[in-house]
Specification:
By secondary structure, the chain is mainly alpha-helical. It is built from twelve helices and three strands; from the N terminus they run E-H-H-H-H-H-E-E-H-H-H-H-H-H-H. Strand 2 and strand 3 form a beta hairpin. The longest helix has 37 residues.
Length: 377
């Protein structure tokens, strides 16, 4: 992957994935890993979005759910639009996607990563209470949620603009590569920018989020009247923030390392950091499914809906209601059917046994009078 830096360029790096790699193992293994991460993560984030959309339609929305839905949408955009570009780049070992994708791929990916960090920071302001079933309206304020998401969108798109300014296509023999070249005339300003940019976009929001949820969890456990209930959502958001920090730290570290003009980090570390970035988007739905009660209940409801629509009942066209436990509903239905069968009367059998119990028969209606005469003799 070594390439000579031009004389009038103070910074030079690949865009959209490391190119000019040698070795068939790298060419095959990395795209397979990225595709597997994309497929699993996309399915998980789609399920999360379906669950939250269903909750909002049923009037069970909240501010935290709105922000977590936007987080799942951002993860889905990263997995469907950013990761396939890297997989194709590693497979081709050159750039084949044109100048527009070359100019915008790193900018779009950094916009999504910044949006994830800021969304988790905004959740510290959101209400974590669950919506009761008797509520007539939602317990969230759409006005400030929409304003916060609009602000996050604008900031996350403006911060990484330099990623788009310095990206360009460069011929390399018969092939073409996508690189970022920063001229020396802009080196002083960009050196200052690359010190402020990671700090404002990653370090400060992450420290604020982790500190807030750590303090909130400590307060909920030690001072809340019902600590187990009140600390669940706080623990969930703390785990999401912690996973984000651990899995995005290598990406931000290598990014800052290269941009500040130091020696380039090893290629393996750069590739490992990029894989962790996409794995972070696949891990978020797993954390939600295992730690968030509403998401687990939504998965159960979607499973019952899918199984009822997929099977054709014999005696009825409607699936039984599964408002409670599905096993209890089925057991109650079977028990009611057995009781109804036991309550049925069979007229012929009942008449037969009634006749047998009534041993006093009138003489005129006696069907076998000779038997009575023989007994009298």
């Amino acid at each position: 992957m070594d390439i000579n830096r031009p004389a009038n360029v103070s910074f030079f790096d690949f865009v959209g994935g490391v190119q000019l790699l040698q070795g068939e193992d790298t060419r095959t293994a990395i795209p397979v890993i990225l595709i597997g991460i994309c497929v699993s993560g996309a399915v998980g984030n789609l399920l999360i979005l379906l669950i939250f959309i269903r909750d909002f339609r049923n009037g069970k929305g909240s501010e935290v759910k709105a922000l977590l839905a936007s987080l799942a949408s951002t993860d889905l955009a990263i997995l469907l639009l950013c990761a396939p570009v890297r997989a194709l780049t590693y497979y081709k070992q050159t750039w084949t996607l044109g100048s527009f994708v070359c100019s915008t791929t790193d900018w779009f990916q950094h916009s999504c990563v910044i949006a994830k960090t800021l969304v988790l920071a905004v959740t510290t302001r959101a209400k974590h209470t669950l919506v009761p079933s008797t509520a007539t309206g939602p317990l969230y304020s759409p006005t400030w949620i929409h304003g916060a998401l609009a602000f996050i969108l604008i900031v996350s798109m403006m911060f990484p603009i330099p990623q788009m300014l310095f990206a360009s296509l460069v011929p390399h023999g018969r092939d073409t590569i996508c690189v970022s070249e920063m001229p020396k005339c802009a080196s002083d300003f960009m050196s200052l920018f690359y010190k402020i940019y990671p700090t404002a976009a990653f370090v400060v929001p992450v420290i604020f989020t982790l500190a807030y949820y750590t303090k909130a969890l400590h307060t909920a456990v030690n001072h809340a009247p019902n600590p187990q209930h009140q600390s669940k959502v706080t623990l969930l958001l703390l785990c999401l923030s912690g996973a984000l920090v651990l899995m995005l730290l290598p990406e931000w570290g290598t990014f800052t390392w290269i941009r500040l003009g130091y020696n380039k980090p090893p290629v393996g570390l750069i590739i490992f950091a990029q894989v962790l970035l996409y794995a972070c988007s696949s891990l978020s739905p797993v954390i939600l499914m295992t730690m968030y009660d509403d998401v687990r209940q939504g998965l159960i409801s979607i499973w019952f809906i899918a199984t009822c629509r997929g099977t054709k009942p014999i005696h009825s066209t409607k699936c039984p209601k599964t408002e409670g436990n599905g096993a209890e509903v089925g057991a109650n239905a079977v028990g009611n059917a057995v009781l109804k069968e036991n309550e049925k009367n069979f007229p012929d059998v009942e008449h037969f046994w009634t006749g047998r119990r009534n041993t006093h028969v009138e003489e005129e209606q006696d069907p076998v009078p000779w038997e009575r005469e023989e007994k009298m003799l």
